[in-house]
Amino acid sequence: MKGQIQLHEVDFAYPARLDAMIFKGFSINTDAKKSTTLVGHSGSSKSTINGLIKRFYDPLKGIVKLDGKDIKIFHLRVLRKHIALVHQEPILFVAGFKKLVQFGMTRPSRIRLNVGRNESQTHDFISGLKHGYDTWCAGKGVQLSGGQRQCIAIARAILKNAAVLLLDEATSALDSRSEVVVQEALERLMVGQTCVENCDSIAVVDKGKVVEKGTHASLLAKGPSGAYYSLVSLQRGPNPSTPT
Ligand SMILES: Nc1ncnc2c1ncn2[C@@H]1O[C@H](COP(=O)(O)OP(=O)(O)OP(=O)(O)O)[C@@H](O)[C@H]1O
Ligand SMILES: [Mg+2]
């Protein structure tokens, strides 16, 4: 599995709101072994794209492909084995921490677990608990903050070693210290590509369409009339080319 993702002419509406079309003829291509970042205003359907890739929902029309094959031909379990997702708001089952971190791994090994522990910085807070990795999460066990849940989800994604890694604002719930640490771990995993500026390709989504695609530099070069330029200037002020 190489990990090339393609959405081809996809029409989509959520089952609960079939009258509200999210995509009409939406297409996007991403390269295997490369990083693609989706940017856009809140509600511009970035998370929905991840949901379609992971097959939480199927398109009404069009095809989602993995390595050129319609994802519907894969057994759901097989498809999801190849795709790791750190969701914007991770939900964890009631289980022991060890199980939660290993979840989705085909053959959990001690070595890989240790790598995941160190890489995701979950180890500090889990090992500090009275029962360590045998502590139960939720239920009658430990209740986790949003940031701690994200740490678990990231550790699991790292350990899964999948062909496709989907990060949906993966560090948004972390405090700034933890965010730096987790970002560094993800940078090592993805060879310096988690930051929007450094990723191979940026796609700007707006009203269910990809309106611009390119690198950070090429999109900024479009100047103030560009969609990416205006999103960056919203964050950085009027002169987005100035590094922060
Ligand atoms: N389960 C759902 N049922 C119905 N509509 C939904 C559902 N989830 C999302 N939507 C709608 O789909 C649209 C796209 O939402 P989505 O969460 O994909 O946006 P987003 O770009 O990820 O936003 P954000 O930047 O805030 O995370 C929104 O209009 C939203 O209201
Ligand atoms: Mg989202």
UniProtKB/TrEMBL annotation:
What the entry lists under Pfam families is as follows: ABC_tran
Question: Which SMART domains does the protein's record reference?
Answer: AAA
Domain (ABC transporter) ranges:
5-232
* UniProt keyword terms in alphabetical order: ATP-binding, Glycoprotein, Nucleotide-binding, Repeat, Transport
What PANTHER family does the annotation carry? ABC TRANSPORTER DOMAIN-CONTAINING PROTEIN
Q: Which family does it belong to?
A: Belongs to the ABC transporter superfamily. ABCB family. Multidrug resistance exporter (TC 3.A.1.201) subfamily.
| Protein name per the record | ABC transporter domain-containing protein
Organism expressing this protein natively: Vitis vinifera
